[in-house]
Write a structure and sequence with these properties.
globular
Length: about 140
């Protein structure tokens, strides 16, 4: 559990979360979609931050016993929280946009899982890349 908390506090991960949230907030003003506002941007981004890399790790490390929980976290992060929020905020927007949101959110969730997958500092990551590049094929 302590290792997980260390990963959540890594500056490069928090910075990428900030960049992603900023883009979501800007997008909510620019695109004027009926289901895209600032609160849902925060809710979904934070849930993705907390679960996407773990979900990706469950798949890549073949942690079969965690698949049901991973599927639940993935669904809740990309659709469950969206449904709850819009069910109470604006059911018409939910009915109009839920199908479109699912695929877009699933894609973003997967990308976030890949970005935040690495466990370590940015310095460690760059050192590993350098070591990999200097290794002969």
């Amino acid at each position: 559990m302590n290792k997980l908390l260390i990963e959540y506090k890594r500056p490069w991960k928090l910075f990428t979360l900030f960049i992603g949230l900023s883009l979501l907030i800007i997008g909510s003003f620019y695109y004027q979609a009926p289901d895209w506002d600032i609160p849902i941007s925060f809710i979904m981004a934070i849930l993705a931050y907390l679960t996407a890399s773990w979900s990706m790790r469950v798949i890549t490390e073949r942690q079969w016993k965690h698949i049901p929980l991973m599927l639940f976290f993935t669904w809740f992060s990309i659709d469950g929280c969206y449904w709850i929020y819009w069910h109470f905020q604006d059911p018409v927007a939910l009915a109009l946009m839920r199908d479109v949101n699912f695929l877009a959110s699933l894609s973003l969730y997967g990308m976030c899982g890949l970005v935040w997958y690495y466990q370590g500092s940015l310095k460690d990551f760059l050192a590993e890349i350098k070591a990999y590049q200097s290794t002969p094929p």
